[in-house]
Design brief:
The chain is built from eleven helices and four strands; from the N terminus they run ααααββαααααββαα. It is mostly helical.
């Protein structure tokens, strides 16, 4: 069973672009999510991340990340509402709780938790799109001259995490297929078996890398950078998004306040920035190839005829 987060090569612009361009594009959306707290801007960043993943063909990764992100966002909202009692609008009074004292759920705490949860969900979706659309081998080759061992470690982690997720799914399926007469398998034995399998695989990978000479200090080789025709597009979108984010901070696009009362800015700068951030999700869109024009009377032009017929025509003219 292949993990949803595993990299799958596809003829899409995001997969064909160089790792630097893809990381710059996805990283620019992540920077917007970390810089802004306005729920409208965060929702636009989430829309951009989802659109980028869907246009890149990573539907399974986006769906799974959305489920995880929304669950995490709900957890953040609940925890923030129970822990933080600031705000003027009290929604519910839950009495005294052990270790927490008097718990008053306020509308302002719910909105603040929603903002933090949206940020976490956007980052999870961006991480899923990166894992499913950026080739880890190309990332390793690009970072080999800068930090070889660190790049190798990061690449192995990005490869082994989806493998561990697939192992966990196989272990759960095997536990369910044991039949009704077998004893129920809890989460702790499954976690121990998964950890043991991960450690065994790590030892095998380390031995394989040592046999292939990764422990030796090899001479530095020149890194031939492979560029794609989509790199300029993603770099341009990343620069435009970062410039718009900085300008939006200057012109008050992040007008958002939760305490003591909720104030969400919906000015022109906020709406313009949100629209721009959402439209950046169309960057991985693939253009359809142009069709050759057809002649009205059904005859073929000289360029559309086969080369053999054109050669025969030139020979016949020469003989005449």
């Amino acid at each position: 069973m292949r993990s949803s987060f595993a990299y799958q090569p596809r003829p899409r612009p995001l997969q064909l672009a160089s790792p630097g361009a893809a990381v710059a594009y996805l990283g620019a959306i992540a920077v917007v999510a970390f810089l802004y707290s306005n729920p409208l801007v965060l929702a636009a960043a989430g829309v951009a991340a989802v659109m980028a993943g869907l246009l890149a063909g990573a539907r399974r990764a986006v769906e799974f990340a959305l489920k995880m992100g929304l669950s995490l966002a709900l957890l953040v909202v609940v925890v923030n509402a129970l822990v933080v009692s600031r705000g003027e609008t009290v929604v519910a009074r839950l009495g005294d709780w052990p270790l927490l004292g008097p718990v008053d759920v306020t509308f302002e705490a719910i909105v603040a938790g929603l903002s933090m949860g949206l940020r976490a969900a956007v980052v999870l979706v961006l991480g899923a799109v990166y894992s499913a659309c950026v080739d880890p081998d190309r990332v390793l080759r690009a970072l080999r001259t800068l930090a070889g061992r660190s790049a190798l470690t990061a690449t192995l982690v990005s490869r082994l995490v989806p493998v561990a997720a697939a192992d966990a799914a196989r272990l759960r399926d095997a536990a369910r297929l044991r039949g009704p007469g077998a004893a129920e398998v809890g989460k702790a034995p499954l976690a121990r078996r998964l950890l043991a399998g991960s450690l065994d695989r790590a030892v095998d990978v380390a031995a394989t890398l040592e046999l292939r000479g990764y422990s030796l200090d090899a001479p530095r080789a020149r890194n031939r950078r492979s560029r794609s025709r989509y790199d300029r597009r993603f770099y341009a979108v990343a620069v435009l998004l970062l410039a718009a984010a900085i300008a939006g901070k200057t012109f008050g696009a992040d007008d958002f306040q939760t305490y003591p009362s909720v104030e969400i800015g919906l000015g022109g700068a906020t709406l313009a920035l949100s629209a721009l951030v959402a439209l950046t999700g169309l960057a991985p869109l693939r253009r359809k190839p142009k069709r050759r024009p057809k002649v009205a009377d059904g005859t073929k032009t000289a360029l559309s005829r086969p080369k053999s017929s054109r050669r025969r025509g030139r020979g016949e003219v020469a003989r005449v």
